[in-house]
């Protein structure tokens, strides 16, 4: 019988980097602070510019291994009347946390995402999102994020901690829907050969 695995650990423990984890190092080719990061896929719910109902988030590189973005909430994002749905807020935080991986030039997917909802968020608010990597251990990338109402210094509404796991490009070609994978390879022929993202000025 096998013993407990990392996946069996309580959420808090799973999001705590092991003692041998390392400080994240900004990749030398990471986009300069202030650069807008392009979408990795134009139909992505979080960042895809062609997604009809997506969040259309545009992340911006910060100093270090970090990004920021703004989410303009709308009526479509309601859960309770006039208030943002928690799942929408978690999606937005997942998107910016995922964008942080670009600063490491790592292709990674969310393994665990833990959110704390501290304040209700009105749907006419602009949420200022920020995310940064805190540690890296082998394929594991540990990150944290915040969402503040109205300004980068505004009231803290939601925070999140997350674990991403680096994956090979085969993760997408093996598990993704064939027609969508074919479309992205047709539109972005270099994406699988080189890297999973481009930087658009
Ligand atoms: C051609 C098309 C191009 C497309 C270009 C796209 C480009 C880039 C797209 C990015 C997209 C972003 C979009 C937003 C972010 C999402 O939304 S991602 C979507 C949601 N997430 C998913 O679908 C992931 C689903 N899960 C999985 O596929 C698998 O579980 C994973 C995450 C790949 C891991 O599986 P695995 O490789 O078998 O992992 P495994 O070896 O068991 O564990 C890896 C490590 O994690 C540790 N671990 C595992 N679970 C845990 C846990 N719960 N706690 C602590 N540690 C754990 C293990 O101990 C192990 O550690 P090491 O031994 O390496 O130190």
From TrEMBL:
Cell compartment(s), UniProt: Cell projection, Ruffle membrane; Cytoplasm; Membrane
Highest taxon listed in the record's lineage: Bacteria
EC number, UniProt record: 3.1.2.2
Record-annotated Thioesterase domain positions: 82-150
Molecular-function annotations in GO: hydrolase activity
Substrates-to-products reaction catalysed: octanoyl-CoA + H2O = octanoate + CoA + H(+); (5Z,8Z,11Z,14Z)-eicosatetraenoyl-CoA + H2O = (5Z,8Z,11Z,14Z)-eicosatetraenoate + CoA + H(+); (9Z)-octadecenoyl-CoA + H2O = (9Z)-octadecenoate + CoA + H(+); decanoyl-CoA + H2O = decanoate + CoA + H(+)
GO term, biological process aspect, one: fatty acid metabolic process
UniProt keywords, alphabetically: Apoptosis, Cell membrane, Cell projection, Cytoplasm, Fatty acid metabolism, Hydrolase, Lipid metabolism, Membrane, Transit peptide
Assigned protein family: Belongs to the THEM4/THEM5 thioesterase family.
Protein name as it appears in the record: Acyl-coenzyme A thioesterase THEM4
Organism: Wenjunlia vitaminophila
């Amino acid at each position: 019988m096998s013993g407990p695995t990392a996946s069996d650990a309580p959420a808090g423990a799973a999001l705590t980097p092991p003692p041998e984890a390392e400080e994240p190092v900004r990749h030398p080719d990471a986009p300069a602070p202030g650069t807008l990061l392009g979408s990795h896929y134009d139909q992505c719910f979080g960042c895809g510019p062609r997604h009809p109902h997506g969040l259309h988030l545009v992340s911006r590189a910060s100093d270090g291994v970090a990004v920021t973005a703004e989410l303009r909430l709308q009526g479509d994002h309601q859960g309770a009347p006039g208030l943002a749905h928690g799942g929408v807020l978690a999606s937005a935080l997942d998107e910016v946390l995922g964008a942080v991986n670009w600063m490491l030039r790592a292709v990674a997917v969310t393994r665990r995402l833990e959110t704390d909802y501290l304040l209700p968020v009105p749907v006419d608010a602009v949420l200022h999102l920020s995310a940064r990597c805190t540690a890296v251990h082998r394929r594991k990338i540990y990150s944290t994020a915040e969402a503040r109402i109205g300004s980068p210094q505004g009231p803290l509404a939601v925070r999140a901690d997350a674990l991403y796991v680096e994956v090979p490009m085969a993760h997408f070609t093996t598990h993704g829907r064939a027609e969508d994978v074919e479309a992205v390879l047709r539109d972005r022929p270099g994406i699988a050969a080189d890297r999973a993202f481009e930087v658009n000025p």
